[in-house]
From TrEMBL:
Protein name per its UniProtKB record: Citrate synthase
GO molecular function: 2-methylcitrate synthase activity; citrate synthase activity
Gene3D superfamilies referenced in this protein's UniProt entry, alphabetically: Citrate Synthase, domain 1, Cytochrome P450-Terp, domain 2
GO cellular component: a single term: mitochondrial matrix
Keywords, in A-Z order: Transferase, Transit peptide
GO biological process: carbohydrate metabolic process; citrate metabolic process; tricarboxylic acid cycle
Active site: H304, H350, D405
Pfam family for this entry, one: Citrate_synt
Residue ranges crossing the lipid bilayer per the database entry: none
UniProt organism field: Westerdykella ornata
InterPro entries, A to Z: Citrate_synth-like_lrg_a-sub, Citrate_synth-like_sm_a-sub, Citrate_synthase, Citrate_synthase_AS, Citrate_synthase_euk, Citrate_synthase_sf
Catalytic activity field: oxaloacetate + acetyl-CoA + H2O = citrate + CoA + H(+); propanoyl-CoA + oxaloacetate + H2O = (2S,3S)-2-methylcitrate + CoA + H(+)
Family: Belongs to the citrate synthase family.
Length: 468
Protein backbone atom coordinates (compact mmCIF):
# COMPACT_ATOMS: atom_id res chain seq x y z
CA UNK A 1 0.00 0.00 0.00
CA UNK A 2 2.82 2.38 0.86
CA UNK A 3 4.43 1.82 -2.54
CA UNK A 4 1.07 2.47 -4.19
CA UNK A 5 0.71 5.78 -2.34
CA UNK A 6 4.25 6.80 -3.28
CA UNK A 7 3.50 5.94 -6.92
CA UNK A 8 0.34 8.05 -6.86
CA UNK A 9 2.22 10.95 -5.34
CA UNK A 10 4.88 10.62 -8.03
CA UNK A 11 2.23 10.87 -10.74
CA UNK A 12 0.70 13.98 -9.19
CA UNK A 13 4.13 15.60 -8.95
CA UNK A 14 5.14 14.90 -12.54
CA UNK A 15 1.83 15.36 -14.33
CA UNK A 16 1.69 19.19 -14.20
CA UNK A 17 5.21 19.35 -15.63
CA UNK A 18 4.17 17.27 -18.63
CA UNK A 19 0.79 18.95 -19.19
CA UNK A 20 2.10 22.49 -18.87
CA UNK A 21 3.09 22.32 -22.53
CA UNK A 22 -0.49 21.56 -23.56
CA UNK A 23 -1.88 25.04 -23.19
CA UNK A 24 -5.56 25.10 -24.07
CA UNK A 25 -6.14 21.44 -23.21
CA UNK A 26 -7.37 19.80 -20.02
CA UNK A 27 -4.60 19.18 -17.50
CA UNK A 28 -4.42 15.99 -15.46
CA UNK A 29 -5.19 17.93 -12.30
CA UNK A 30 -8.27 19.69 -13.71
CA UNK A 31 -10.58 17.17 -12.03
CA UNK A 32 -12.93 16.62 -14.98
CA UNK A 33 -11.82 13.13 -15.92
CA UNK A 34 -9.15 10.64 -14.94
CA UNK A 35 -6.22 10.69 -17.38
CA UNK A 36 -4.82 7.61 -19.07
CA UNK A 37 -1.60 7.83 -17.05
CA UNK A 38 -3.48 8.07 -13.75
CA UNK A 39 -5.81 5.21 -14.71
CA UNK A 40 -2.89 2.95 -15.57
CA UNK A 41 -0.85 3.96 -12.50
CA UNK A 42 -3.69 2.96 -10.20
CA UNK A 43 -3.69 -0.54 -11.67
CA UNK A 44 0.01 -1.32 -11.37
CA UNK A 45 0.19 -2.50 -7.73
CA UNK A 46 -2.69 -4.93 -8.24
CA UNK A 47 -1.19 -6.32 -11.44
CA UNK A 48 2.18 -6.85 -9.79
CA UNK A 49 0.57 -8.70 -6.88
CA UNK A 50 -1.46 -10.86 -9.26
CA UNK A 51 1.67 -11.94 -11.13
CA UNK A 52 3.59 -12.57 -7.88
CA UNK A 53 0.77 -14.75 -6.53
CA UNK A 54 0.46 -16.70 -9.77
CA UNK A 55 4.18 -17.46 -9.86
CA UNK A 56 4.43 -18.24 -6.15
CA UNK A 57 1.51 -20.66 -6.05
CA UNK A 58 1.67 -22.16 -9.54
CA UNK A 59 5.19 -21.46 -10.78
CA UNK A 60 6.12 -25.12 -11.05
CA UNK A 61 3.02 -26.11 -13.05
CA UNK A 62 3.68 -27.48 -16.55
CA UNK A 63 1.85 -25.35 -19.10
CA UNK A 64 2.78 -27.22 -22.27
CA UNK A 65 5.06 -29.88 -23.66
CA UNK A 66 7.16 -28.79 -26.63
CA UNK A 67 7.84 -31.01 -29.62
CA UNK A 68 10.74 -30.97 -32.03
CA UNK A 69 8.30 -30.07 -34.80
CA UNK A 70 7.41 -26.88 -32.92
CA UNK A 71 11.05 -26.03 -32.29
CA UNK A 72 12.04 -26.48 -35.93
CA UNK A 73 8.76 -24.99 -37.14
CA UNK A 74 9.53 -21.48 -35.95
CA UNK A 75 8.31 -21.99 -32.34
CA UNK A 76 4.81 -22.28 -33.79
CA UNK A 77 2.19 -22.61 -31.08
CA UNK A 78 4.59 -22.72 -28.12
CA UNK A 79 2.97 -20.96 -25.16
CA UNK A 80 5.83 -18.84 -23.84
CA UNK A 81 4.95 -15.14 -24.11
CA UNK A 82 2.90 -12.84 -21.87
CA UNK A 83 0.69 -10.45 -23.81
CA UNK A 84 -2.09 -8.67 -21.94
CA UNK A 85 -3.80 -6.67 -24.68
CA UNK A 86 -5.18 -9.39 -26.91
CA UNK A 87 -5.67 -13.12 -27.24
CA UNK A 88 -6.22 -14.90 -30.56
CA UNK A 89 -8.57 -17.87 -30.54
CA UNK A 90 -8.38 -20.21 -33.52
CA UNK A 91 -12.17 -20.31 -33.94
CA UNK A 92 -13.35 -17.02 -32.51
CA UNK A 93 -10.62 -14.70 -33.71
CA UNK A 94 -9.02 -11.79 -31.88
CA UNK A 95 -10.29 -10.36 -28.63
CA UNK A 96 -8.96 -7.05 -27.33
CA UNK A 97 -9.00 -7.28 -23.53
CA UNK A 98 -11.76 -9.86 -23.86
CA UNK A 99 -13.81 -7.90 -26.41
CA UNK A 100 -14.41 -8.99 -30.00
CA UNK A 101 -14.06 -6.54 -32.88
CA UNK A 102 -17.87 -6.12 -33.19
CA UNK A 103 -18.03 -5.45 -29.44
CA UNK A 104 -15.24 -2.88 -29.73
CA UNK A 105 -17.09 -1.23 -32.62
CA UNK A 106 -20.12 -0.98 -30.38
CA UNK A 107 -18.66 0.20 -27.06
CA UNK A 108 -15.57 2.26 -27.94
CA UNK A 109 -16.18 6.02 -28.38
CA UNK A 110 -16.53 7.46 -31.87
CA UNK A 111 -15.95 10.89 -33.35
CA UNK A 112 -18.99 13.18 -33.31
CA UNK A 113 -21.22 11.87 -36.10
CA UNK A 114 -18.71 9.09 -36.83
CA UNK A 115 -19.35 5.41 -37.45
CA UNK A 116 -16.14 3.62 -36.50
CA UNK A 117 -14.34 3.43 -33.14
CA UNK A 118 -11.51 5.85 -32.52
CA UNK A 119 -8.06 4.23 -32.19
CA UNK A 120 -7.50 6.37 -29.09
CA UNK A 121 -10.19 4.34 -27.37
CA UNK A 122 -8.58 1.04 -28.32
CA UNK A 123 -5.18 2.22 -27.03
CA UNK A 124 -6.80 3.08 -23.70
CA UNK A 125 -8.51 -0.32 -23.61
CA UNK A 126 -5.30 -2.21 -24.43
CA UNK A 127 -3.29 -0.43 -21.76
CA UNK A 128 -5.82 -0.42 -18.91
CA UNK A 129 -8.39 -3.10 -19.72
CA UNK A 130 -11.11 -0.46 -19.36
CA UNK A 131 -13.41 1.14 -21.91
CA UNK A 132 -12.79 4.89 -21.74
CA UNK A 133 -15.46 7.54 -21.62
CA UNK A 134 -16.02 9.85 -24.57
CA UNK A 135 -14.38 12.69 -22.65
CA UNK A 136 -11.33 10.60 -21.84
CA UNK A 137 -10.92 9.79 -25.53
CA UNK A 138 -11.35 13.44 -26.50
CA UNK A 139 -8.67 14.35 -23.96
CA UNK A 140 -6.33 11.69 -25.33
CA UNK A 141 -6.87 12.97 -28.88
CA UNK A 142 -5.95 16.46 -27.68
CA UNK A 143 -2.89 15.19 -25.83
CA UNK A 144 -1.58 13.31 -28.85
CA UNK A 145 -2.18 16.36 -31.04
CA UNK A 146 -0.27 18.50 -28.52
CA UNK A 147 2.68 16.10 -28.57
CA UNK A 148 2.73 15.73 -32.37
CA UNK A 149 5.48 18.17 -33.38
CA UNK A 150 8.30 16.33 -35.16
CA UNK A 151 11.85 17.57 -34.51
CA UNK A 152 13.32 19.51 -37.39
CA UNK A 153 16.28 17.17 -37.76
CA UNK A 154 13.94 14.21 -38.27
CA UNK A 155 12.03 16.08 -40.97
CA UNK A 156 15.32 16.93 -42.68
CA UNK A 157 16.45 13.31 -42.39
CA UNK A 158 13.31 12.14 -44.19
CA UNK A 159 13.75 14.85 -46.83
CA UNK A 160 17.26 13.59 -47.55
CA UNK A 161 16.14 10.02 -48.12
CA UNK A 162 16.20 9.06 -51.83
CA UNK A 163 12.72 8.67 -53.25
CA UNK A 164 13.46 5.09 -54.28
CA UNK A 165 14.30 4.04 -50.71
CA UNK A 166 11.37 1.86 -49.61
CA UNK A 167 8.86 3.81 -47.47
CA UNK A 168 9.20 1.27 -44.65
CA UNK A 169 12.96 1.79 -44.54
CA UNK A 170 12.39 5.54 -44.31
CA UNK A 171 9.81 4.99 -41.57
CA UNK A 172 12.22 2.86 -39.53
CA UNK A 173 15.02 5.40 -39.97
CA UNK A 174 12.83 8.26 -38.74
CA UNK A 175 11.58 6.35 -35.69
CA UNK A 176 15.13 5.31 -34.80
CA UNK A 177 16.31 8.91 -35.09
CA UNK A 178 13.70 9.98 -32.53
CA UNK A 179 15.80 8.13 -29.94
CA UNK A 180 17.50 11.50 -29.44
CA UNK A 181 14.28 12.67 -27.75
CA UNK A 182 13.87 9.62 -25.50
CA UNK A 183 12.82 10.39 -21.91
CA UNK A 184 13.62 6.80 -20.97
CA UNK A 185 17.16 6.82 -22.36
CA UNK A 186 17.97 10.14 -20.70
CA UNK A 187 16.54 9.11 -17.34
CA UNK A 188 18.29 5.73 -17.45
CA UNK A 189 21.62 7.42 -18.17
CA UNK A 190 21.13 9.57 -15.05
CA UNK A 191 20.30 6.53 -12.92
CA UNK A 192 16.56 6.28 -12.33
CA UNK A 193 15.01 3.65 -10.02
CA UNK A 194 13.20 0.70 -11.57
CA UNK A 195 9.88 1.98 -10.22
CA UNK A 196 10.10 4.86 -12.70
CA UNK A 197 10.82 2.74 -15.78
CA UNK A 198 7.19 2.56 -16.79
CA UNK A 199 6.60 6.32 -16.46
CA UNK A 200 9.37 7.19 -18.91
CA UNK A 201 8.31 4.35 -21.20
CA UNK A 202 4.80 5.79 -21.08
CA UNK A 203 6.01 9.29 -21.96
CA UNK A 204 8.14 8.02 -24.84
CA UNK A 205 5.27 5.88 -26.16
CA UNK A 206 2.82 8.77 -26.03
CA UNK A 207 5.27 11.09 -27.79
CA UNK A 208 6.10 8.47 -30.41
CA UNK A 209 2.50 7.60 -31.22
CA UNK A 210 1.66 11.29 -31.48
CA UNK A 211 4.40 11.88 -34.07
CA UNK A 212 3.80 8.84 -36.27
CA UNK A 213 1.04 10.32 -38.51
CA UNK A 214 3.19 13.33 -39.42
CA UNK A 215 6.22 11.12 -40.10
CA UNK A 216 4.18 8.65 -42.15
CA UNK A 217 2.49 11.45 -44.10
CA UNK A 218 5.78 13.20 -44.82
CA UNK A 219 7.18 10.00 -46.32
CA UNK A 220 4.06 9.57 -48.45
CA UNK A 221 3.95 13.18 -49.63
CA UNK A 222 7.71 13.20 -50.37
CA UNK A 223 7.75 9.97 -52.36
CA UNK A 224 4.45 10.21 -54.20
CA UNK A 225 3.17 13.80 -54.08
CA UNK A 226 4.43 17.38 -53.69
CA UNK A 227 6.23 17.01 -50.35
CA UNK A 228 3.79 19.31 -48.53
CA UNK A 229 2.22 18.00 -45.32
CA UNK A 230 -0.72 19.64 -43.61
CA UNK A 231 -0.22 20.53 -39.94
CA UNK A 232 -1.92 18.49 -37.25
CA UNK A 233 -5.32 19.96 -36.40
CA UNK A 234 -5.26 20.16 -32.63
CA UNK A 235 -9.01 19.77 -32.20
CA UNK A 236 -9.30 16.64 -34.35
CA UNK A 237 -8.80 12.95 -33.62
CA UNK A 238 -5.87 10.73 -34.57
CA UNK A 239 -7.52 9.01 -37.55
CA UNK A 240 -8.73 12.29 -39.03
CA UNK A 241 -5.28 13.86 -38.74
CA UNK A 242 -3.62 10.91 -40.47
CA UNK A 243 -6.15 11.04 -43.30
CA UNK A 244 -5.78 14.81 -43.59
CA UNK A 245 -1.98 14.78 -43.61
CA UNK A 246 -1.99 12.09 -46.28
CA UNK A 247 -4.27 14.39 -48.31
CA UNK A 248 -7.58 12.46 -48.17
CA UNK A 249 -9.62 14.16 -45.44
CA UNK A 250 -12.06 15.68 -47.95
CA UNK A 251 -13.61 12.23 -48.18
CA UNK A 252 -15.34 11.54 -44.85
CA UNK A 253 -15.64 7.84 -45.71
CA UNK A 254 -11.86 7.59 -46.04
CA UNK A 255 -11.51 9.22 -42.63
CA UNK A 256 -13.82 6.54 -41.22
CA UNK A 257 -11.77 3.87 -42.99
CA UNK A 258 -8.59 5.18 -41.33
CA UNK A 259 -10.24 5.00 -37.92
CA UNK A 260 -11.32 1.42 -38.58
CA UNK A 261 -7.98 0.46 -40.16
CA UNK A 262 -5.92 1.83 -37.27
CA UNK A 263 -8.13 0.03 -34.76
CA UNK A 264 -8.28 -3.46 -36.28
CA UNK A 265 -4.62 -3.61 -37.39
CA UNK A 266 -3.23 -2.51 -34.04
CA UNK A 267 -2.79 -5.74 -32.10
CA UNK A 268 -2.89 -9.46 -32.86
CA UNK A 269 -1.34 -11.24 -29.90
CA UNK A 270 2.33 -11.09 -28.98
CA UNK A 271 3.76 -13.88 -31.10
CA UNK A 272 3.69 -12.21 -34.52
CA UNK A 273 7.00 -10.84 -35.75
CA UNK A 274 6.43 -7.12 -35.20
CA UNK A 275 4.89 -7.54 -31.74
CA UNK A 276 7.40 -10.12 -30.54
CA UNK A 277 10.36 -8.14 -31.87
CA UNK A 278 9.21 -4.93 -30.17
CA UNK A 279 8.74 -6.84 -26.92
CA UNK A 280 12.09 -8.64 -27.22
CA UNK A 281 14.14 -5.51 -27.93
CA UNK A 282 12.28 -3.66 -25.20
CA UNK A 283 13.14 -6.41 -22.71
CA UNK A 284 16.79 -5.30 -23.03
CA UNK A 285 15.61 -1.87 -21.79
CA UNK A 286 15.96 -0.30 -25.20
CA UNK A 287 13.71 2.74 -25.48
CA UNK A 288 10.27 2.55 -27.14
CA UNK A 289 11.78 4.27 -30.19
CA UNK A 290 14.43 1.61 -30.75
CA UNK A 291 12.02 -1.18 -29.83
CA UNK A 292 9.31 -0.07 -32.26
CA UNK A 293 11.87 0.55 -35.02
CA UNK A 294 12.98 -3.07 -34.66
CA UNK A 295 9.36 -4.21 -34.85
CA UNK A 296 8.80 -2.11 -37.97
CA UNK A 297 11.73 -3.81 -39.67
CA UNK A 298 10.03 -7.14 -39.03
CA UNK A 299 6.69 -5.81 -40.23
CA UNK A 300 8.31 -4.89 -43.55
CA UNK A 301 8.86 -8.56 -44.41
CA UNK A 302 6.77 -10.23 -47.14
CA UNK A 303 5.61 -12.93 -44.71
CA UNK A 304 4.19 -10.31 -42.35
CA UNK A 305 3.03 -6.75 -43.07
CA UNK A 306 3.86 -6.81 -46.76
CA UNK A 307 1.23 -9.48 -47.36
CA UNK A 308 -1.63 -7.08 -48.14
CA UNK A 309 0.40 -5.69 -51.03
CA UNK A 310 0.93 -9.19 -52.42
CA UNK A 311 -2.81 -9.88 -52.20
CA UNK A 312 -3.60 -6.79 -54.23
CA UNK A 313 -1.03 -7.67 -56.90
CA UNK A 314 -2.54 -11.16 -57.20
CA UNK A 315 -6.09 -9.76 -57.46
CA UNK A 316 -5.04 -7.30 -60.14
CA UNK A 317 -3.44 -10.12 -62.14
CA UNK A 318 -6.62 -12.16 -61.80
CA UNK A 319 -8.76 -9.21 -62.94
CA UNK A 320 -6.55 -8.78 -65.98
CA UNK A 321 -6.79 -12.49 -66.78
CA UNK A 322 -10.54 -12.99 -66.39
CA UNK A 323 -11.77 -9.52 -67.27
CA UNK A 324 -15.40 -8.95 -66.32
CA UNK A 325 -16.18 -12.63 -66.04
CA UNK A 326 -16.77 -13.06 -62.31
CA UNK A 327 -18.58 -16.37 -62.67
CA UNK A 328 -17.95 -19.11 -60.15
CA UNK A 329 -16.27 -21.17 -62.86
CA UNK A 330 -13.85 -18.39 -63.88
CA UNK A 331 -12.83 -17.74 -60.28
CA UNK A 332 -12.45 -21.44 -59.54
CA UNK A 333 -10.30 -22.00 -62.63
CA UNK A 334 -7.99 -19.13 -61.73
CA UNK A 335 -7.64 -20.35 -58.15
CA UNK A 336 -6.68 -23.82 -59.38
CA UNK A 337 -4.20 -22.37 -61.87
CA UNK A 338 -2.54 -20.50 -58.99
CA UNK A 339 -2.31 -23.63 -56.84
CA UNK A 340 -1.13 -25.88 -59.66
CA UNK A 341 1.66 -23.41 -60.38
CA UNK A 342 2.96 -24.15 -56.89
CA UNK A 343 1.84 -20.80 -55.47
CA UNK A 344 -0.33 -20.01 -52.47
CA UNK A 345 -3.54 -18.03 -52.64
CA UNK A 346 -2.44 -14.79 -50.94
CA UNK A 347 -4.65 -13.51 -48.15
CA UNK A 348 -5.98 -16.97 -47.29
CA UNK A 349 -4.88 -19.06 -44.34
CA UNK A 350 -3.44 -18.04 -41.00
CA UNK A 351 -0.93 -19.44 -38.52
CA UNK A 352 -3.55 -19.55 -35.74
CA UNK A 353 -7.02 -18.84 -37.13
CA UNK A 354 -9.24 -21.64 -38.41
CA UNK A 355 -12.12 -19.47 -39.58
CA UNK A 356 -12.66 -16.20 -41.43
CA UNK A 357 -10.62 -13.44 -39.79
CA UNK A 358 -12.98 -11.02 -37.96
CA UNK A 359 -10.77 -8.20 -39.20
CA UNK A 360 -11.61 -9.29 -42.76
CA UNK A 361 -15.30 -9.34 -41.85
CA UNK A 362 -15.23 -5.79 -40.47
CA UNK A 363 -13.62 -4.52 -43.68
CA UNK A 364 -16.09 -6.47 -45.79
CA UNK A 365 -18.99 -4.89 -43.91
CA UNK A 366 -17.44 -1.45 -44.46
CA UNK A 367 -17.17 -2.16 -48.19
CA UNK A 368 -20.73 -3.46 -48.41
CA UNK A 369 -21.90 -0.17 -46.93
CA UNK A 370 -19.64 2.28 -48.78
CA UNK A 371 -18.54 0.68 -52.06
CA UNK A 372 -20.84 -2.24 -52.90
CA UNK A 373 -20.54 -1.74 -56.67
CA UNK A 374 -16.77 -1.40 -56.88
CA UNK A 375 -15.47 -4.00 -59.40
CA UNK A 376 -12.52 -4.98 -57.21
CA UNK A 377 -14.76 -5.45 -54.18
CA UNK A 378 -17.03 -7.65 -56.26
CA UNK A 379 -13.98 -9.70 -57.24
CA UNK A 380 -12.91 -10.01 -53.59
CA UNK A 381 -16.44 -11.13 -52.70
CA UNK A 382 -16.42 -13.81 -55.38
CA UNK A 383 -13.02 -15.10 -54.27
CA UNK A 384 -14.40 -15.24 -50.71
CA UNK A 385 -17.30 -17.32 -52.00
CA UNK A 386 -15.21 -19.79 -54.00
CA UNK A 387 -11.72 -19.98 -52.43
CA UNK A 388 -12.55 -21.86 -49.21
CA UNK A 389 -14.04 -24.76 -51.18
CA UNK A 390 -11.11 -24.92 -53.60
CA UNK A 391 -8.54 -24.75 -50.80
CA UNK A 392 -10.37 -27.42 -48.83
CA UNK A 393 -10.39 -29.67 -51.89
CA UNK A 394 -6.71 -28.92 -52.45
CA UNK A 395 -6.12 -30.19 -48.93
CA UNK A 396 -2.84 -28.47 -48.12
CA UNK A 397 -4.06 -25.67 -45.87
CA UNK A 398 -5.36 -25.91 -42.32
CA UNK A 399 -7.39 -22.74 -42.73
CA UNK A 400 -9.06 -22.12 -46.12
CA UNK A 401 -10.55 -18.78 -45.04
CA UNK A 402 -9.40 -15.18 -45.63
CA UNK A 403 -7.32 -13.13 -43.23
CA UNK A 404 -7.13 -9.36 -42.81
CA UNK A 405 -4.74 -8.89 -45.75
CA UNK A 406 -7.30 -10.24 -48.24
CA UNK A 407 -9.31 -7.03 -48.08
CA UNK A 408 -7.40 -3.95 -46.90
CA UNK A 409 -5.60 -3.14 -50.16
CA UNK A 410 -8.81 -3.04 -52.19
CA UNK A 411 -10.32 -0.47 -49.80
CA UNK A 412 -7.27 1.80 -50.00
CA UNK A 413 -7.24 1.52 -53.80
CA UNK A 414 -10.89 2.53 -54.01
CA UNK A 415 -10.28 5.81 -52.20
CA UNK A 416 -7.25 6.70 -54.32
CA UNK A 417 -4.39 5.63 -52.10
CA UNK A 418 -2.99 3.41 -54.82
CA UNK A 419 0.72 3.34 -53.94
CA UNK A 420 1.10 -0.25 -52.79
CA UNK A 421 4.66 0.07 -51.46
CA UNK A 422 3.29 2.48 -48.88
CA UNK A 423 0.62 0.25 -47.37
CA UNK A 424 2.88 -1.31 -44.75
CA UNK A 425 3.67 2.14 -43.35
CA UNK A 426 -0.03 2.53 -42.49
CA UNK A 427 0.13 -0.91 -40.91
CA UNK A 428 3.14 0.29 -38.89
CA UNK A 429 1.30 3.35 -37.55
CA UNK A 430 -1.51 1.08 -36.43
CA UNK A 431 0.74 -1.62 -34.96
CA UNK A 432 2.39 0.95 -32.67
CA UNK A 433 -0.98 1.35 -30.93
CA UNK A 434 -0.91 -2.34 -30.04
CA UNK A 435 2.71 -3.07 -29.14
CA UNK A 436 3.54 0.01 -27.10
CA UNK A 437 0.88 -0.60 -24.41
CA UNK A 438 2.49 -3.97 -23.72
CA UNK A 439 5.92 -2.32 -23.52
CA UNK A 440 4.57 0.04 -20.84
CA UNK A 441 3.04 -2.91 -18.98
CA UNK A 442 6.31 -4.86 -19.22
CA UNK A 443 8.21 -2.05 -17.52
CA UNK A 444 5.47 -1.49 -14.92
CA UNK A 445 5.45 -5.10 -13.72
CA UNK A 446 9.20 -5.55 -13.97
CA UNK A 447 9.30 -8.05 -16.84
CA UNK A 448 12.83 -9.46 -17.27
CA UNK A 449 15.01 -9.60 -20.34
CA UNK A 450 13.86 -12.37 -22.65
CA UNK A 451 16.45 -15.11 -23.08
CA UNK A 452 15.23 -18.55 -24.23
CA UNK A 453 17.61 -21.48 -24.40
CA UNK A 454 18.89 -22.73 -27.76
CA UNK A 455 20.52 -26.01 -28.79
CA UNK A 456 22.23 -27.30 -31.91
CA UNK A 457 20.59 -29.96 -34.06
CA UNK A 458 23.08 -32.49 -32.70
CA UNK A 459 22.10 -31.64 -29.12
CA UNK A 460 18.40 -31.97 -29.88
CA UNK A 461 19.09 -35.34 -31.43
CA UNK A 462 20.76 -36.44 -28.19
CA UNK A 463 17.82 -35.15 -26.13
CA UNK A 464 15.40 -37.41 -28.06
CA UNK A 465 17.85 -40.30 -28.37
CA UNK A 466 17.98 -39.97 -32.15
CA UNK A 467 20.80 -41.13 -34.44
CA UNK A 468 21.63 -38.75 -37.28
Amino acid sequence: MASSLRLGASILRTAPLRTAAYKGFRCYSAGKTTSLKETFAAKIPGEIEKIKKLRKEYGSEVVQEVTLDQIYGGARGIKSLVWEGSVLDSEEGIRFRGKTIPECQQVLPKAPGGEEPLPEGLFWLLLTGEVPTEQQVRDLSAEWAARSDVPKFVEELIDRCPSDLHPMAQFSIAVTALERESNFAKAYAKGMPKSQYWEHTFEDSMDLIAKLPTIAAKIYRNVYKDGKVAPVEKDKDYGYNLANQLGFADNKDFVELMRLYLTIHSDHEGGNVSAHTTHLVGSALSSPYLSLAAGLNGLAGPLHGLANQEVLIWLQKMKKAIGNDLSDEAIRDYLWSTLKAGQVVPGYGHAVLRKTDPRYVSQREFAQKHLPDDPMFKLVSQVYKIAPGVLTEHGKTKNPYPNVDAHSGVLLQYYGLTEQNYYTVLFGVSRALGVLPQLIIDRAVGAPIERPKSFSTEMYAKLVNATL
